[in-house]
Amino acid sequence: ILKRSKMIASFWSISVLLCLVNLGVSLIAEDPLRMGLKQMGFQGAIFVPGEIGYHKFRLGHTGTCKFAFPKLVARPRTSADVAFGVMLARSENISLSVRSGGHGYLCQHLKNNSLHLDLRRLNHMHLLTPDPEKNLPLRLNLGPGSTWGRVLKQFPISRYSMVHGQCTTVGVGGYLLGGGVNFVGTSSKLGSGSQNVMEYTMISATGDLLKVSENAIQTLHLNESVKDTLLEPKNDLFFALKGAGSSFGIVTNFLYQIYDEPETQPVLVPIFFRGPSNYQDSVNLRHDLGCDWCYWTLVIWNGPKRPLFFANDPPPDQKGIYTLDFTCQYDPHSSAQAKRCENVVQLAKARMSKIAEEEGEHLNQYYNTPSCDINGRPFYERYWHHHYETLLAQKQIWDPTNLLTHCHAVGSTDEDCCPTV
Ligand SMILES: *[C@@H]1O[C@H](CO)[C@@H](O)[C@H](O)[C@H]1NC(C)=O
Ligand SMILES: *[C@@H]1O[C@H](CO)[C@@H](O)[C@H](O)[C@H]1NC(C)=O
Ligand SMILES: *[C@@H]1O[C@H](CO)[C@@H](O)[C@H](O)[C@H]1NC(C)=O
C-alpha cells in the first residue's frame, strides 16, 4: 500500500509538472526567428536569449567572447540547415555570425544581434580509400565542426600524416579557411592545410549549395542533386577559399587529402633570446609593459612546399625562409595598461620590420593570428598582399551585399575592429 500510494503521488506530481510545462509553453510567445527557421525545415537545435542552450553555445572555447549577444543561436545538422540560416538572415535583414569547431581569441565569429550559426554539430569524418584508376589519393570528408584533437583521435599520427592544427582545440573549419599552418614541420613537408583541400562543399551568401574544386564549380539542389556545372580553368573562388575562406562561403565539408604514412616527428630547437634573464624578460613584458600574455612562434620553412599566402611566393629552390610570430594580449578595459602593451608591441614590430627589410624580406601576417595594427600597413596587405585584388573581385561576384563579413574580412574597411574579448 505504501508503495502504491507513493507511485500514485509521483504519478500526480509528474502530471502536474507536465501540465505546468504545457501551460508555460503556450503562454510564452514563440520567437519569430526560431519559428521562421523551423518552418523552413531546420533540423538542428535553436536557442533564444534566456535559454540554457543559448548561454552554453554562444560562448567561445573556455568561455571567451562574453560581450556579444546574438538574437538566436542555431546549431545546423546539415548543409541545408546552414542554407536556411543564410536565407533567413537575408530575408530578415539581420547580420550573420558563424563559428566552426575550435578556439578563437578575437571573437570575429560572434556578433551582437546576429543570427548565429554554431557548426559544431557538423563534425563528421569519413575516410575515402585511394582510387588509382581515377587518380584519387587517400582522403577524408571532414565537417568544419570538429577539432583537430578529435580528428587525430580517429586518424592517429602513428598511422596517417595530414596537415593539422597543433593544439588539439584548433577547429577544422577556421584552420582550413585561414590557410592552415602546422608550425612544427608538417607544413614544411606537405604544404599548408588549405593546399590539401581538394573540394569544398559550401553554402554561398545567397544560400546556394556549391561544390568548389580546382577546375569546376557545381551548383546543387539542397537534396544534393546537381543543378549545374561550371568549368573553371582558373578557379579564383577555389583560390579565395584557401586563404580567406570565411569571406566567401560557409563550408560544410572539406574533401581533404591525407597520407598513408606516420607523421614525421619534428625536432624542436628552442632558441633563447639573449638577455639578463629570459624568464625575467617575459615577466617584464607581461607586467611592467602592460601585456597580460605574450608568446613567440618561430617557424623555419625548409621543405619543398610553402604556404600559399606566405612569403610572397618565393622561388622553390629558395630555402630557409622563416616566420616569426609575436603575439601579445592585453585587457582592453584597462586603457592605460592596453596603451602600454600596444606601444611595446608596435616598437618591437617596427624593429623587426626594419631588420626584415634590410634582409630583403617584408613582414606578412598569418590570417589565423590576426591583429589590429592601425599604425602599420593595412590589414589586407599584411594578410594577402598582391592577391587582394583577386579576392576583392571574387567577393564582388559571390557576396556583393557583404553578408559574410567580420573584422578583417575581404571587403571590410575597418582597420581597428579587433573586438574585445
Ligand atoms: C553588444 O551589446 C552589448 C549590450 O548592448 C554591449 O555591452 C557589448 O559591448 C556589445 N558587444 C559588441 C561586441 O559589440
Ligand atoms: C537592412 O539593415 C541595415 C542596417 O541594419 C539598414 O541600413 C538597411 O536599410 C536595411 N535594409 C532593408 C532593405 O531593410
Ligand atoms: C532534388 O530537388 C530538386 C529541386 O527541388 C528536384 O527537382 C529533384 O527532383 C530532387 N531530386 C531528388 C533525387 O530528390
Automatic annotation (TrEMBL):
Gene Ontology molecular-function annotations: FAD binding; oxidoreductase activity
Domain annotation FAD-binding PCMH-type: ranges: 66-261
Keyword set, alphabetical order: FAD, Flavoprotein, Oxidoreductase, Peroxisome, Signal
InterPro entries documented for this protein: FAD-bd_PCMH, FAD-bd_PCMH-like_sf, FAD-bd_PCMH_sub1, FAD-bd_PCMH_sub2, FAD-linked_Oxidoreductase, Oxid_FAD_bind_N, Oxy_OxRdtase_FAD_BS
Signal peptide per UniProt: 1-29
Subcellular location(s) per record: Peroxisome
Cofactor(s) for this UniProt protein: FAD
GO cellular component terms given for this protein: peroxisome
Primary subcellular site in the record, as a coarse category: other
Keyword Flavoprotein: yes
Entry's family note: Belongs to the oxygen-dependent FAD-linked oxidoreductase family.
Record's protein name: FAD-binding PCMH-type domain-containing protein
Lineage, uppermost ranks: Eukaryota, Metazoa, Ecdysozoa, Arthropoda, Crustacea
